[in-house]
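Sample A.
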Amino acid sequence: MKSGHIGLFERYGKSSLPIKQLMGPSVPQMMGANETLPEAVGDDVRKVFEERMEHEITAILNGWHK
């Protein structure tokens, strides 16, 4: 939007107006609705973090990063 507002909008009809902003649940609400999701996401985050950390350390030791 020209004002800087960020959102998801749906246009009604063929003209540029009217539009309606669509809303959904927040991330914390979605995470809290599924008891196993936070644990699964945490496991994935931990795995990716460890892989990236190993990669970055290897890059520094091999002189790939200045």
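Sample B, a different protein:
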Amino acid sequence: MSESRPSWLLFAPVTFLVLWSSGYVAAKFGLGYIEPMTFLTLRFGCVVLAMAFFALILKPPLPANATEWAHLAIVGFFLQAMYFGMCYMSFNAGLKVGSLALVLALQPIVVGLIAPRWTGETVGVRQWIGLVLGLAGAVIVIWAGAAVAPPTWEGLAFACLALCGITCGSLWEKRFGVSHHPVTANLVGFAAGLMGVAPFMFLFEQMHVVWSWQLLASLAYLVVGSSLIAISLLLAMIRAGEVAKVSALFFLVPPLAAILAWLVLGETVPFIAWPGMIVAGVGVWMARQSTPGRKPARTV
């Protein structure tokens, strides 16, 4: 552990936001050719194979005890199986990218309410103002989009379960997570996610796949960009800083996801949504400011 903040943290938030937001678009793009749990099983299986290959070559350090193994697996289940699984199910139920992003934008508020008791963090007044502004901006963006394409109740239910998954995974990682080699962390986490989604594929889906370049491109992007890079950045930022500040980044996901969905999928972005993006950006900036008089969080 070190008190100095590594230089990569300066670029990590922007890189994470771009990869995370575009992952929604890539997932919905690919789901036109494959069922949701089959898609996730294929995606997680590719990640596990890649990480197993790197583990054999690099021989990274393994968790020191059974407790550390369990914590890695629990975080992996919440972030991979529950979060991504329910996101894919919401898309399959007809939910638009922007509507899903709005529900998930509630995560910083939920984390801000739970973090003081769960992790011992203090969320200051300035951060709370930023969280509220961020949420307001996200609501404006997606409310405008919902007027064009109202969300389905089934899709919203799956989105709420996805919200529970990303919130629980973030809080569990902050309280119990320790620094592990990225290959080890990804291997264990995605293996837990694979075991979480594979049974649902076998029980409820026909496992029919329409192989096409669109599906392969979507799968490749999700495996490398969303699964390997974005998840690693998210867990590293949570360990290196306060979980409420990291979670505040999710307020920028709805605006960015809406723009990308407009560019790639043709989903409409009404004019009123643009001021909402500005409000969300201001809110995130405020929420990520350090509380006066507090020492910066230790970095991994």
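Observation for Sample B: Residues 7-287 form one domain.
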